């Protein structure tokens, strides 16, 4: 039995999101069911679209048209030029999709890229980005960002902060929460009963016994040992420069890194076009393509839909796995 359809929020109407939605429908119409939450007048119109009134109509509609859950926006969609009048609509589309996912009407939420400045200009958007907004909608204090592809999954423990601020931000509590949330999601959403998690060191050569920094000795290794004693299957702390080649990757299911670039450089080097952003720790599945609004190419029909397609596929696979797990524990 297939899960409920995936809700797809439209993101910034002036970006490449909606043209990627149409391309994704072309690629996936015989594979899975999703519906886009948007103002129908904003669609580029390169594929047939059909307004639906309930998510349950999406599966039947997919074969012949892109299912659209209509939501009126106040502004127009001009490729490459954000209209602040659309800001409230963009936020409402995300909120609607999240609520449908929490209510079970949708099996997951996939989000097209937003433009944070346009949201701030038009609606005083008070969040750093999508993830924080979704956490607020769900009433969750702590979420974890994963970047995933068929070749690698990575989780940065600290994210959008200066490298100089990482050592102070990297606390045992933060690292423990990151490992626990990742471990739970690998079991629940990725179908890995006993996840193998690799933990990167912070310093070159994982500190080399304290010669290049002591965070591994004073904080990371003790926490890893503590969690191992609790039953977690952890490797590390490992030198980051030797843990991402093919033989090393075969030994773990996910790598937890200490800061943004330590995690994102490997996956973007290995699979730049197909990486998917997954938010762990929410009460619903959320994926998104790993790129922005790309105003410079919006409306030209040349945007690559690979990451959006993979984000929808991954959401479907995760929803299927979660459904199976819930059925097995019922």
Describe the overall structure.
This protein is 38% helix and 16% strand. The protein has 330 residues and is α/β, with parallel strands linked by helices. It folds into two domains: 1-141 and 282-330, Isopropylmalate Dehydrogenase (3-Layer(aba) Sandwich), CATH 3.40.718; 151-270, 3-Layer(aba) Sandwich (Isopropylmalate Dehydrogenase), CATH 3.40.718. It has a twelve-stranded mixed beta sheet, with helices on both faces. A hairpin with a 4-residue loop joins strand 6 and strand 7. Helix 1 crosses helix 11 (306-329) and helix 3 (87-103) crosses helix 4 (116-123).
Topology:
Layout: E1 6-9, H1 17-28, E2 34-38, E3 49-51, H2 58-62, E4 66-70, H3 87-103, E5 108-111, H4 116-123, H5 130-138, E6 144-148, E7 153-156, H6 166-169, H7 172-188, E8 196-200, H8 215-229, E9 233-238, H9 246-249, E10 254-257, H10 260-270, E11 276-280, E12 286-289, H11 306-329
Parallel strand pairs: 1-2, 1-5, 2-4, 3-4, 5-12, 7-10, 8-9, 8-10
Antiparallel strand pairs: 6-7, 6-11, 11-12
């Amino acid at each position: 039995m297939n899960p409920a359809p995936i809700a797809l929020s439209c993101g910034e109407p002036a970006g490449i999101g909606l043209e990627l939605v149409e391309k994704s429908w072309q690629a996936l119409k015989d594979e899975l069911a999703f519906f886009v939450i948007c103002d129908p007048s904003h669609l580029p119109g390169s594929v047939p679209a059909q307004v639906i009134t309930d998510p349950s109509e999406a599966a039947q509609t997919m074969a012949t048209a892109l299912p659209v859950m209509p939501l009126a926006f106040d502004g127009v969609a001009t490729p490459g030029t954000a209209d602040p009048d659309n800001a409230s609509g963009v936020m409402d589309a995300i909120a609607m999709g999240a609520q449908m996912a929490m209510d079970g009407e949708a099996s997951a939420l996939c989000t097209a890229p937003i433009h944070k400045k346009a949201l701030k200009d038009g609606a005083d958007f008070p969040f750093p980005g999508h993830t924080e907004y979704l956490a607020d909608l769900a009433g969750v204090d702590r979420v974890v960002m994963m970047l995933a592809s068929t070749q690698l999954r990575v989780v940065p423990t600290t994210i959008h902060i200066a490298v100089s601020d990482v050592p102070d931000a990297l606390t045992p509590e933060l690292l423990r929460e990151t490992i626990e949330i990742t471990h739970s999601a690998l079991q629940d959403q990725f179908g890995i009963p006993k996840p193998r998690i690799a933990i990167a060191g912070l310093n070159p050569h994982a500190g080399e016994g304290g010669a290049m920094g002591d965070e591994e000795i004073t904080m990371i290794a003790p926490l890893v040992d503590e969690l191992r004693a609790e039953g977690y299957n952890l490797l590390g702390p490992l030198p980051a420069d030797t843990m991402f080649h093919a033989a090393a990757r075969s030994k773990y299911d996910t790598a937890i890194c200490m800061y943004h670039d330590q995690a994102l450089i490997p996956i973007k080097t290995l699979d730049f076009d197909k990486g998917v952003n997954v938010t762990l720790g929410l009460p619903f599945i959320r994926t998104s393509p790993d790129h922005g609004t790309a105003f410079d190419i919006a409306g030209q029909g040349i945007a690559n839909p690979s990451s959006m397609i993979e984000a929808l596929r991954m959401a479907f696979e995760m929803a299927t796995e979660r459904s199976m797990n819930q059925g097995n524990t019922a």
